[in-house]
Amino acid sequence: MNQLLIDYLFKTNAIRVCPKDKPFWYTSGRIGPYYVNTHFLYGSEEKANSFLADIDRLKEDKLSCSKEIHKLSQKNYSTDEIYKGTIDALVAYVSQNLDISKIDLISGGERRDWFFSFMVAELLNKPHITLFKDKSAVLYKDGESTLIDDLNGKNVLHIADLITTASSYERAWVPAIKNLGADIKWSLVVVDRLQGGKEILAGLGLESHAMVDIDTQVFTKAKDSGYIDEAQLSLVLDYIRNPENSMKEFLMKNPDFLVQSLAADEKTAQRARLLVENDFYQVSLFVKD
Fold it and tell me: Do residues 271 and 25 lie in contact, with contact meaning Cβ atoms separated by under 8 Å?
């Protein structure tokens, strides 16, 4: 199951590794060797972006959107091998590792969780709680949506695309469910980036589960399968061992990278300026103004 999902992640570019001399710019202004876009497991980047656009349109009507999002998910599940394989893997994991009889409800949060949560809820025959960023919620059951204010102590399994530092759980999902008189007891994500999210969930009283941990083994398997080469693997492994030092060393060895980024398109230049302004990687020590 793990190897199958790793194959899916790299086939769809859900995990994308940069060329050895061109790390990616992250929104924060930092740089790194890989991106994770788990929602590409919908089948492809193009299909995932199209579905996101549909979700953005549909979620304006909170009562009707669950049914429409579920319909789109069902259609894709019946036609896309990668998406079906991913959903089936999630359902199999729950069946093998959790007591389904103790799960009363499945929740998923706006927006990317919904790529996975609706179909898992259907296949496990559980009602779905559609959670919104403003902490509002809709109960979706048997094709109908209703507003809810009390879930009477029910136990919830939250399905998500990935977890980094669990900020969405802390800020919105856990409080939203508690406000309804229920508790998220378990979290299952497709990808755990191993950035402290599991520990934060434990502090919130949640049992954390993940299909794939983004660790050295994932990239070693990707190299063995021909998805990345030795140079890319080396860059990623250095980054995983020490993100700060590895990217600082890259910039020191490749000073033109920052200079070229500052003169690139506005999106890239803005992120490069953030790096300089915040003195990430102690860039002021080796790059002149």
Answer: yes
CA separation for the pair 37, 273 (Å, rounded): 24
**Residue whose structure tokens are 């060393």:** 249
- Judge if pTM exceeds 0.85: yes
pLDDT, one tens digit per residue, over 167-193 is: 999 999 999 999 999 999 999 999 999
Q: Are strands 105-109 and 183-192 parallel, antiparallel or unpaired?
A: unpaired
Give the tens place of pLDDT for each residue, 10-27. 999 999 999 999 999 999
Burial of 86 by CB count in 10 Å (0-12 exposed, 13-18 middle, 19+ buried)?
buried
CA distance 148 to 287: 56
Three-state secondary structure of the chain? CHHHHHHHHHHCCCEEECCCCCCEECCCCCEECEEECHHHHHCCHHHHHHHHHHHHHHCCCHHHHHHHHHHHHHHHHHHCHHHHHHHHHHHHHHHHHCCHHHCCEEEEECCCCHHHHHHHHHHCCCCEEEECCCCCEEEEECCEEEECCCCCCCEEEEEEEEECCCHHHHHHHHHHHHHCCCEEEEEEEEEECCCCHHHHHHHCCCEEEEEEECCHHHHHHHHHCCCCCHHHHHHHHHHHHCHHHHHHHHHHHCHHHHHHHHCCCHHHHHHHHHHHHCCHHHHHHCCCC
Angle (deg, nearest 10), helices 62-79 and 45-58: 160
Domains of the chain plus CATH, in order, are: 39-217 (3.40.50.2020), 245-289 (no CATH)
Rg (CA), the chain: 20
**Cβ distance 192 to 214 under 8 Å?**
yes
pLDDT digits (tens, 9 = 90+) for 69-97: 999 999 999 999 999 999 999 999 999 99
